Amino acid sequence: MALTFDQRDGVIWLDGKLVPWADAKLHVLSHGLHYGSCVFEGERAYGGAIFKCTEHSERLKRSAEILDFTIPWSIPEIDAAKRLVLEKNGQKDAYVRPVAWRGSEMMGVSAQQNTIHLAIATWEWPSYFDPAQRLKGIRLDLADYRRPDPKTAPTLAKAAGLYMICTISKHKAERKGYADAMMLDWEGRVAECTGANIFFVADGRIHTPTADCFLDGITRKTTIELARRRGLEVVERRIMPEELSGFSECFITGTAAEVTPVSEIAEWRFTPAAITQQLMDDYTAEVQPKGKAAAA
Questions:
Q1: Rounded CA gap, 183 and 252, in Å?
Q2: In this predicted model, what pLDDT tens digit does every residue of 159-189 receive, in sequence order?
Q3: What's CA 233's distance to the chain center, in Å?
Q4: Distance between CA 5 and CA 7 in Å, rounded?
Q5: Which residue ranges make up each domain of the chain?
Q6: Residue 82 in 3-state DSSP?
Q7: What is the pLDDT of residues 186-214, one digit of tens each?
Q8: Superfamily of domain 131-290
Q9: 33: alpha, beta or left, given left = phi > 0 and alpha = psi -120 to 50?
Q10: Which of 12, 134, 139, 279 is the most buried (most CB within 10 A)?
Q11: Angle at 52 between CA 3 and CA 285, to 5 degrees
Q12: Do 131-290 and 11-123 have the same topology in CATH?
């Protein structure tokens, strides 16, 4: 049986110091647990270098500000802490998880004086999807829940509470034999998957939903840049579900998913082909610790 995430070896950076993994705890009455005042990042290290390290730290700080709290460590301090944890855990290829939350001084909706905590953990994590299935293209269900109207939730923050409907949707999809689920937005337009952005290909052009009610992912932006370097046209626009029958390829992007082909979304079918394969290869090359990737 695999080790649970509270009983692993190694250290976690917690509020400015390294502590043994099993000792990195918070109180059961922490505001972040009860009211969702919690933000986080998902990052990957390749060959000992954290890809887009500073960009992730900037987004972490920005997400906290959207939730009306300030993380009391600077971006360079957060970057340094992430690298320290990776080094102390002796890992080269790993997942990196910074998380910040309001503490337990006040238990109620208003908690302006609560201490802001920050923790950083790293662990080895293989491919998010089964490697053999990934090359064939994963299968996606169509989620019942929709991404919320930006007027009703802090949709541009990577906030823990926004993932509640993602967990529900992914569980339901997995029980039906799918790898994940695609979510629509509050107006019924294509949005994203439960933890990844989505792209489609038609006649050599790449189409992706406008990121205005969900995260404009760092992997999403990297993939768009890689496609444009290849001279491929990338169109960011509103996409309706009925358009999916007109696309030949589909793939998703995210720190965990990287670039993963899709073969099926509910009744729609796709065939992973040249553009998806090229971007998979280009992304793999980009994240290796050399050139821009090492400096990020």
A1: 12
A2: 999 999 999 999 999 999 999 999 999 999 9
A3: 24
A4: 6
A5: 11-123, 131-290
A6: helix
A7: 999 999 999 999 999 999 999 999 999 99
A8: D-amino Acid Aminotransferase, subunit A, domain 2 (3.20.10.10)
A9: alpha
A10: 279
A11: 90
A12: no
218-229 vs 274-287: helix crossing angle, rounded to 10 = 110
Residue that has been written with the tokens 């730290």 in this structure: 57
State the pTM of this model. 0.93
Provide the token pair at 273: 């082909």
Query: What residue ranges of the chain have pLDDT lower than 70?
Result: 1, 126-134, 291-296
Instruction: Provide CATH code, domain 11-123.
Output: 3.30.470.10
Residues 26 and 38: their CA atoms lie apart, in Å, by: 13
Which residue numbers are catalytic? 158
Instruction: Give residue for tokens 């994590």.
Output: 125
- Longest C-alpha distance within the chain, in Å? 57
Collect contacts of 1-4 with beta carbons under 8 A, ≥24 apart: none
Would you state the structure tokens that stand for residue 132, as one six-digit string? 């053999």
CB 243 within 8 A of CB 186: no
Which two structure tokens, joined as six digits, stand for 62?
């920005």
